Amino acid sequence: IKRAYHLALLTHHPDKTSPSQITSPHSARPTIDALKTAYKTLSTPSLRTSYDRALLLSLSSLSPTPNSISNSTTPTETLDLSDLSHTADPGGGVWYRACRCGLERGFVVQERELERADDEGVREVLVSCGGCSLWVRVVFGV
Q1: N or C: which end of the chain has fewer CB within 10 A?
Q2: Cα angle for residues 21, 55, 8 (degrees, 5° grid)
Q3: How far apart (Å, rounded) are the C-alpha atoms in residues 33 and 19?
Q4: What pTM was estimated for this model as a whole?
Q5: What's the Cα-to-Cα distance from 89 to each of 24, 85, 140, rounded to whole Å?
């Protein structure tokens, strides 16, 4: 991430860009502030998790078209939290479910994830399988 950030700064810095590239209406060049915000978001784990969740939610609401993102990144099914097995942990509860790839605890949701989503006013979490590229949406109540 750091290397890509520095490369983007060098590529899009106003002092390194010719005037014709700046005034061209066809070039949607990112600003230095946008690059800094992107770097901060991607390099901070909590911000990156929130960004990934928002991105997946927006992608899952798209209707599949030939030009849209592949269905492998969108949830394959929606589950209620009660559909998952639960174990108590000293650090909080853990819910899990087997995936069709064969991994017994493929989809794992930790209590802190549910609390974070609840704090954000969201009643669902998106969970990826630890053994393949499948995703599920887990909905829950308080």
Answers
A1: C
A2: 30
A3: 19
A4: 0.50
A5: 57, 13, 19
Q: Residue 16 and residue 44: Cα distance in Å, rounded?
A: 28
Q: Is 29:17 a contact under the CB 8 Å cutoff?
A: yes
- Computed from CA positions of residues 113, 95, 55, 52, in that sequence, does the dihedral angle turn out positive or negative? positive
Q: What is the mean pLDDT of residues 26-39?
A: 79
Helix (H/G/I), strand (E/B), else coil: 44? coil
* Rounded-to-integer distance, Cα 127 and Cα 134, Å: 9
Structure tokens at 139: 């909905």
At 107-126, the pLDDT tens digits run 999 988 888 888 888 888 88
Per DSSP, the residues of 102-126 read S-TT-EEEEHHHHHHHHHTT--EEE
Q: How many Å apart are CA 71 and CA 127, to the nearest integer?
A: 15
